[in-house]
Specification:
By secondary structure, the chain is mainly alpha-helical. The protein has eleven helices and no strands. Helix 8 runs antiparallel to helix 10 and helix 10 packs across helix 11.
């Protein structure tokens, strides 16, 4: 019997024989990277004169269609739509990354502590997290936006609270399963502290699904932020934010001014699609049940 060299499944991520969802993941990465680069370099491009000030209302032209001077046209308020669309990616990614990062920083430790310690603390946390989880995410975000007020940080907090239960539930369930493994019992027998067991032995074994949740929640957060902006919540008025620009464009559509709604709407849609494709591809790569089938040689 001959022995064959084991092959690491992760290398299939770069293989031409990768599954369709993994190949689409690369499309999502490219789309997301375009928005990331736009968010990072928007102020630089403005300083070079490539972009108009997104808060500067042009005296002329007002609500002009796309042209060589204004690629995406101008709005009825006199704003350059291309500039506001590019700067909108900066605002969107700031809120989205901050919101998802906050939810990870809160949900993951709570899930590990709750699942490992169990008892009354676990029951109390599970009750509150289930109560939050049953509420519709958009309704909860709208309610919290009224409470915390407008602003990038406030919008991120309003969005993050809706995602904390998802990380909590996933990590807690993994922790409950892993804490009965022999290596955890061996660490306990050797007198390892709770902190050491949680963050040295448990952490890497219970966070496999977190990157998938992060990208999918980021897509949902971008869409929810756009919804808050459309409703007049989340960020201050006149901020270059896609949802707010869509709300401003709503009255202009009946008069034939279609470009003020088309381009912010397309940008929001593409960012959500890009992040969703990344999340679905990561899920297939990380999930052992899916990987067993799709990485088979």
């Amino acid at each position: 019997m001959s022995l064959t060299k084991p092959r690491f499944p992760g290398l299939r991520l770069f293989s031409p024989r990768s599954s369709l969802s993994v190949q689409l993941m690369w499309v999502g990465i490219v789309i997301t990277l375009i928005f990331v680069l736009a968010a990072i370099f928007a102020p630089v491009w403005q300083s070079w004169g490539w972009l108009q000030d997104p808060l500067e209302s042009l005296a002329n032209p007002i609500h002009q269609p796309p042209s060589g001077e204004h690629w995406f046209g101008t709005s009825r308020q006199g704003y350059d739509v291309f500039s506001r669309t590019v700067f909108g990616s900066r605002v969107a990614l700031q809120v989205v990354v901050l919101a998802t990062a906050l939810s990870v920083l809160v949900g993951v430790p709570l899930g590990m502590i709750s699942g490992y310690l169990g008892g009354r603390l676990d029951r109390i946390l599970l009750f509150f997290m289930d109560a939050i989880y049953t509420l519709p995410g958009l309704l909860l975000s709208v309610t919290l936006a009224f409470v915390v007020g407008r602003g990038v940080i406030n919008a991120a907090i309003a969005l993050s609270i809706a995602y904390v239960p998802q990380y909590y539930r996933v990590v807690r369930n993994h922790t409950v399963s892993v804490k009965t493994e022999l290596f955890i019992e061996a660490a306990q027998a050797m007198g390892a502290s709770t902190d050491r067991i949680l963050f040295r032995y448990l952490f890497l074994n219970v966070v496999q699904s977190v990157p998938v949740l992060f990208t999918l929640n980021a897509a949902d957060a971008a869409l929810t932020l756009g919804s808050l902006g459309f409703l007049g919540l989340g960020l201050p008025d006149q901020t270059p934010e896609w949802g707010f620009d869509l709300r401003q464009a709503l009255d202009a559509l009946p008069t034939g001014i279609w470009w003020t709604a088309l381009f912010p709407g397309m940008a929001l849609t593409m960012l959500v699609v890009g992040l969703s494709l990344v999340g679905e591809g990561l899920n297939e790569f990380i999930n052992p049940l899916l990987r067993r089938e799709n990485w088979r040689s």
